[in-house]
């Protein structure tokens, strides 16, 4: 059975950093197909990052240069490093099976974990 479990969320001050983790079971984690999206209260979800077919990573414009993705093969885990967090980063963050849709210029997401809450406030 495939399962994705996010962790690492919490309260951070503006300008601070958090590292989210996505631990997988039932499949080998590979950031070629594991992406991240977030949903802020009262808003629609938005794709944060996913792998493009050319090997580059799509990043939401508002997080470019501040967020990065890494993989820990030994722990079958993908990490989302978030630096210089801004108040608008307050959201529940989900890792999910993802695919970049070239024709739409955005990520599409399938099965996801339960999410981890990130609060950015002073």
Describe what this molecule looks like in 3D:
This protein is mostly beta strands and 122 residues long. Helices cover 0% and strands 54% of the residues. It has no helices and eleven strands. The protein has strands at 3-7, 10-12, 18-25, 34-39, 46-51, 57-59, 67-72, 77-82, 91-101, 106-112, 116-120. Strands 2, 4, 5, 6, 9, 10 and 11 form a seven-stranded mixed sheet that branches. The termini are far apart. 30% of the residues are buried. The mean pLDDT is 94.
SSE blueprint:
Blueprint: E1 3-7, E2 10-12, E3 18-25, E4 34-39, E5 46-51, E6 57-59, E7 67-72, E8 77-82, E9 91-101, E10 106-112, E11 116-120
Parallel strand pairs: 2-11
Antiparallel strand pairs: 1-3, 3-8, 4-5, 4-9, 5-6, 7-8, 9-10, 9-11
List keywords for this structure.
four-stranded antiparallel beta sheet, globular, 122 residues, seven-stranded mixed beta sheet
Task: Kindly summarize this structure in a few lines.
This protein is mainly beta.
Mean pLDDT figure: 94
What would the principal axes of the Cα set say about the shape?
globular
Q: Count all strands and give the number.
A: 11
- The N- and C-terminal alpha carbons lie at a distance of 40 Å
**Residue fraction in strands:** over 45%
Write down the Rg.
Answer: 13 Å
What kind of sheet is the major sheet? 7 strands, mixed
Helix content: under 10%
Q: H/E element string?
A: EEEEEEEEEEE
Structural class: mainly beta
Q: Ranges with pLDDT <50 over ≥5 residues? A: none
Helix count? 0
């Amino acid at each position: 059975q495939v399962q994705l479990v996010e962790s690492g969320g919490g309260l951070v001050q503006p300008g601070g950093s958090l590292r989210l983790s996505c631990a997988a079971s039932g499949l080998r984690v590979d950031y070629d197909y594991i992406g991240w999206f977030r949903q802020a209260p009262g808003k629609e979800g938005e794709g944060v990052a996913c792998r493009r077919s050319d090997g580059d990573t799509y990043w939401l414009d508002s997080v470019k240069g501040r967020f990065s993705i890494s993989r820990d093969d030994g722990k079958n885990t993908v990490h989302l490093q978030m630096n210089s967090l801004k108040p608008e980063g307050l959201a529940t963050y989900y890792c999910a099976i993802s695919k970049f849709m070239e024709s739409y210029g955005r990520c599409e997401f399938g099965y996801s974990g339960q999410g981890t809450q990130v609060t950015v406030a002073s």
